[in-house]
């Protein structure tokens, strides 16, 4: 959900003090299915998943792709997976459900076209929670100066499961010759 926050911040407050942006495992441009987004998540599935979240957060994590969160070449430890899931489960349920609902319904398409700083979009090809074809591949063309790095076989937690490839992409972007505003 951080990618949505970054986009909203920039469109509300401008980018005068921002040199570059990184969007990782993005929720953008629009998740919910509609006439103008036929590939999106159907409303009935959103309601179904939301009811599971309210009933049992553990069940929700199971059906939301817990196992796929850390796909990649290097598997993370059980302790890291447990810590991540416990962090999610520790969020008060009203906040978790309302935040999830807000991001599922958000439409960032017009805001993405307003981004005017070099942007790195990094996404795993096996991201089950934010499928690349629904998110990253639709987001990139909307951003004026966007580099896309896909990490083959990585899930949503690619910053942990694929930290060496993820960090290499970040460092390359940081040190690249893209024009940096001062």
Compact description:
This protein has 182 residues and is mainly α. The chain has helices at residues 2-13, 43-55, 57-63, 66-69, 78-89, 93-105, 109-112, 136-139, 158-161, 163-175; strands spanning 21-24, 119-124, 146-151.
Commentary on this structure:
The chain has helices at residues 2-13, 43-55, 57-63, 66-69, 78-89, 93-105, 109-112, 136-139, 158-161, 163-175; strands at residues 21-24, 119-124, 146-151. The two termini are 28 Å apart. Helix 8 links the parallel strand 2 (119-124) and strand 3 (146-151). The protein is globular and about 50 Å long. Helix 2 (43-55) runs antiparallel to helix 6. The protein contains ten helices and three strands. Strands 1-2-3 form a three-stranded parallel sheet. Helix content is 47%, strand content 9%. The model has no long low-confidence stretch (mean pLDDT 89). The protein is mainly alpha-helical and 182 residues long.
């Amino acid at each position: 959900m951080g990618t949505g926050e970054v986009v909203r911040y920039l469109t509300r407050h401008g980018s005068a003090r921002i040199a570059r942006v990184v969007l990782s495992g993005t929720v953008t441009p629009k998740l919910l299915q509609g006439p103008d987004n036929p590939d999106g998540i159907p409303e009935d599935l959103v309601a179904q998943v939301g009811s599971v979240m309210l009933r049992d957060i553990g069940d929700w994590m199971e059906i939301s792709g817990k196992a796929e969160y850390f796909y990649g070449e290097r598997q993370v430890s059980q302790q890291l997976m447990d810590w991540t899931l416990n962090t999610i489960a520790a969020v008060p349920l009203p906040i978790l459900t309302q935040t999830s609902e807000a991001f599922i319904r958000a439409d960032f398409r017009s805001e993405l076209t307003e981004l005017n700083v070099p942007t790195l979009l990094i996404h795993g090809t096996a991201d089950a929670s934010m499928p690349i074809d629904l998110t990253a591949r639709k987001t990139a063309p909307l951003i004026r100066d966007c580099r896309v790095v896909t990490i083959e076989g990585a899930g949503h937690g690619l910053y942990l499961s694929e930290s060496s490839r993820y960090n290499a992409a970040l460092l390359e972007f940081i040190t690249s010759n893209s024009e940096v505003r001062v």
